[in-house]
Queue: 3 jobs
Job 1
Amino acid sequence: MPARGSGAVDLKVGPLHAHDTFSRRGAADIAKTHKEDTLDHTRVIHEGAAMNKIEILTGAGISAESGLGTFRDENGLWAQHRIEDVATPEGFDANPKLVHDFYNMRRAESTKASPNSAHDALAQLQKAFRGEVILVTQNVDDLHERAGAETMHMHGALAGSLCAACGARWPSSLLTQPEDPCPSCARPTTRPDIVWFGEMPYQMDEIYAHLGDCDLFAAIGTSGEVYPAAGFVQHANASGADTIELNLEPSSTVSHFAQTRFGPAAQTVPAWVSELTSG
Ligand code: BJW
């Protein structure tokens, strides 16, 4: 399997599922606690404090209202497909056709979907904010780009193919199969350009560098179950950044966030962006 990313990632993450007690609390309780305990960063902006860089992490929840399934929600993708079969290199080795079929299906669904108002709002924020807005997504769909945003795809993209033999990457056809020859080495070793469990996500050095000097870190529509993304909030906290979670319900890492907003992303994200950009 070809090496992914830089290979020099420092995965200083906390223990998994350390915040179960928080995740069992009601969203309203948590939102209330955070509202009472913390200074609202939108107020900080309005009061003129320097806010030069915002780093935003998105997950499957931001595309839910575009009709794309999440992974861990009831009836999510992992309720219908075994992770080991479709999202590990071992699963691919055991049954490459099954894996190609899974991602062909996902690619077809993603092509039919359209960006929703949350994708639109983040693209607008990138244009309107006077500093930098770094958008990192775990999603493999292209809805952020189709809304007009510049995005880092840490878990790869449905739009890409990868040679399992030589590591070449190229734009994917809508339908792929294991026998497709690699345009670089000609071997029949095509796989989706997706980061599976046990593989190194893309652009980690760049993502951690931004976490080291951002003023605000926001996580939107992600369960906080998958590392290294689930550990980003701790890196942001260590750098002294303000943090906010926007989600349908509290994630596994909710207790690390200074602020929270709960509700459908298509409502909470435009409202949050409007607070950030007005005034
Ligand atoms: C809404 C909403 C609405 C719904 N509005 N919100 C122990 C310690 C530390 C790490 C590990 C460990 N054991 C194993 C690991 C590593 C492993 C890992 O994290 N495993 C855990 C599961 C235990 N991670 C990895 O292997 C990663 N690589 C890595 O660590 O490399 C370093 C390394 C390499 C080699 C050796 C050792 C270390 C790679 C992870 C790859 C993840 N890949 C997947 C599938 C591929 C992409 C695809 O097919 O699409 O990526 S898994 C899947 O989960 C997908 C997602 O990107 C990822 C995250 O899911 P996400 O986006 O959070 O979705 P959900 O469904 O979980 O949550 C949806 C959320 O939205 C929920 O909160 C809802 O409430 C919310 N929501 N509707 C707003 N309308």
Job 2
Amino acid sequence: MAKPHISFEYFPPKTAAGKEKLLNETTPALNALGPEFFSVTYGAGGTTRDTTLGIVSAIRDAGIDVAPHLSFGGDDENTVAELLETYKSRGINRLVGLRGDMPSGMGAAMQLVHANDLVRFIRERTGDHFHIAVAAYPEIHPESRSYASDIEFLKKKMDAGANSAITQYFYNVEAYFYYLDQCQAAGIDQPIYAGIMPITNYENLARFSRNCGAEIPRWICKRMESYGDDQESVRQFGLEVVTQLCQTLIDSGCPGIHFYTMNQVEPTRTIYNNLGL
Ligand code: FAD
């Protein structure tokens, strides 16, 4: 069986120490696992423009393939076009194109630009220079009108020129494979990689999951809750559940896995090693 595509996601650290650790410790350790690329998130209000650029430039300078996430947020076309040119000049040839969410505290006044319009804009301005990945939602985006409309809009992103998709994280493997079937039936041929969130802090994960529409199955919640403050048991059970999820995905032909690393080597590395890749 061919090795599935593997990639690792970061967010831009807020401190100089965090940046140094990410670049000098975390990245070499994860890069040793042979990923296709790293990606770095972007605050849709432009809040992380410089930090995202700084991290991706440093990773690229180390000779590693990296994809900045990008969205319009409240920026005008010139600002986004300039950022695209900067990325090109730094030798970057991948992007993750998103509508984005407003960072909390920035209000809802801004009209966010849908990802299909961003993809079209990138293609208009930079042709085929970038490999563009977009977001996909096996459990359906929380603002979607319906299951069918969400797939319709993913198709629009692909028709605008996206090359692949990365999913929101999920723990229901059936939701992912059903979604792949529905996408295929809708004429989407591009690979849809599974986004995987290792479980480190269960309470934070549960809170975040409520907002982004990713379901944590009841049996996982109950088991996690039963551990209370016993972090070691949470860690062990998290490793077991996520390793099993990834193994099932790989055994069932999933084209690749994108790990939301939360800027940590562990538990991503242990899960990766458990898979015997
Ligand atoms: P869209 O594809 O525009 O979809 C948003 C909603 O609008 C969906 O409900 C969709 O059904 C609907 N829709 C889509 N197109 C249209 C249209 N043309 N007309 C009407 N309705 C439409 N957020 C960040 O802020 N920064 C990041 O770096 C970041 N990285 C992410 C990486 C991945 C892999 C994933 C899965 C998500 C990421 N997010 C990030 C979160 C993402 O920005 C949010 O989920 C956001 O709410 C939707 O972004 P999108 O690109 O999927 O939007």
Job 3
Amino acid sequence: MSLVEVDSLTVEFGDLRAVDTLSFRLEEGAALGVVGESGSGKSTVASALLGLHRGTGARVTGSVRVAGTDVQEADGEALRRLRGGTAAMVFQDPLSSLDPYYAVGDQIAEVYRVHSKASRRAARARAVEVLDRVGIPDAARRARSRPHEFSGGMRQRALIAMALACEPALLVADEPTTALDVTVQAQILDLLHGLRQETGMGLILVTHDVGVAAESVDDVLVMRHGRAVERGAVADVLGAPSAAYTKELLGAVP
Ligand code: ADP
Ligand code: MG
């Protein structure tokens, strides 16, 4: 069994087919970059991995399995287990995922407490531990800061800490560095790399920036109009792209 098994996934929003019969696998602990231009369906795939289309108007066919759980079919309890431990997601804009009125540490503690049933005290300790792990200096004190008191890079670190708190087997990161400047971008990619090595979690890194994927993943899946154009080892696909579209993405052809 692979960590992620996507078979003939199709996601439609009304008349628009955002993802079209997409299939791919991710083995435990591996890292896959999902690349493609804006609108190619990357975020729709990312959301499907956590069952985020359920209960929305989106029409989903095909199947998505994460660690053996059928994400579309799972009952409430299995879905909670999936979202609260098996898989976690980090988005482009940390401010949209963090409540501006509450201390960052409290928000991480709350997420952890809901999913792990830990005591408040243990959850607060876990929040400080993961904030420290992602490189927030003086984590015990900074845990009491609210999101706007953090820089953009620190907020993204905090969001990664939140995702890490429940020790996910899979981290889905949707454009996690897009809003950051180049130096901070590199630091966040380094952090993700280190965490992968340390925890053995699988990573799906969604990005429109092939350069970001090239530095951070083993394999890439190139998407266009909701379909997979090609997939393979980073060096093969980006070094010698077989699809004209991939060459275009790389800027290899005018
Ligand atoms: P990407 O992440 O590659 O930029 P998306 O997955 O966000 O692409 O979007 C793919 C297509 O689906 C786009 O045309 C987008 O406008 C459309 N889309 C995405 N989410 C929704 C939604 N909730 N409702 C309607 N259309 C959507
Ligand atoms: Mg997107």
